[in-house]
Amino acid sequence: MKMIKSYKFTKDFDFKEVTQNAIKTFRAKATKDAIIIEKESKYAFVFKYGIAVFWDFSDEEFLLKKISGSSFSSKNCEEFNFELSQAQKIKIETDTVYLDSLNELTMLSVSFAIAQSIKLGEFEDAMLETLQQTEHIPQELARSGRVLLSRKEIARQRGRLFLAKSNIYLHFELLDTPEFFWEYPELEIYYQTARKYLELQPRIEILHRKLSVLQEILTILADEQNHKHSSQLEWIIIILIAFEIIIFIFNDLLKT
């Protein structure tokens, strides 16, 4: 049975460089969001956000090394079987994709959903790690009524959380329906069927809820930081007033 395999580049991915190398080395062409590579009637699709999807390739790693100096991994990536079937345009069950046509555009349409699922998986992993690192904050608040961190550590935590949140929000448009389907609306059924099978929309909604939790933690930290700052100012004022009273008393004693 033929297989769909996917990989993700792990760092230093340069889509422009990859496009140039692919066109120079293989039979390839570029679209707005992906590169289509054909080799012996077999197809590979490399997406601008660092995901590659291969349909019935036997030397995927060789191709990836040829087009990019970035490292890559198949860890936590999607893998399917696929077959030609005339029963309906597309059907996916038990990790097997049945297509009525195995041309480059139908395969690209399904690959868009696969690539988005992998990218969403990266966001999910990053969010899980971030929430695990900060789960002690609401626990401390529930136990002691305050966050047991210094102002400097609170600032650091806020910075980490904001970076995690902004990194997801800045790339969230990658999970929208690709512009490719504005030009080829008749192919969107392939994409939407794969998207539904991969449960992209429920996963996106869960990610949104986790982002809301993250925002609440950021708000807690901001309030705690402001409270600590206010408390520090209050103590400074109290000390200055006390110092002024001591000086006043001392001067009064000298006069007598």
Terminus-to-terminus distance: 105 Å
Q: In what range is the share of β-strand residues?
A: 15-25%
Helix/strand structural class:
alpha+beta
| C-alpha Rg (nearest Å) | 28 Å
Give the low-confidence spans.
none
| Average residue-wise pLDDT | 83
Q: What percent of the residues sit in helical stretches (DSSP H or I)?
A: 55-70%
Order of helices and strands: EHEEEEHEEEEHHHHHH
Shape: elongated
Annotation field: number of helices: 8
Number of domains: 2
Number of strands: 9
How does the major sheet shape up? 9 strands, mixed
Descriptive notes:
The structure is a single chain. The chain is α+β, with helices and mostly antiparallel strands and 256 residues long. It has 2 domains: 76 residues, TATA-Binding Protein (2-Layer Sandwich), CATH 3.30.310.10; 144 residues. The protein is 58% helix and 18% strand. It is built from 8 helices and 9 strands. The protein starts with a strand and ends with a helix. The model has no long low-confidence stretch (mean pLDDT 83).
Salient structural properties:
TATA-Binding Protein, 9-stranded mixed beta sheet, 8 helices, 256 residues, alpha+beta, elongated
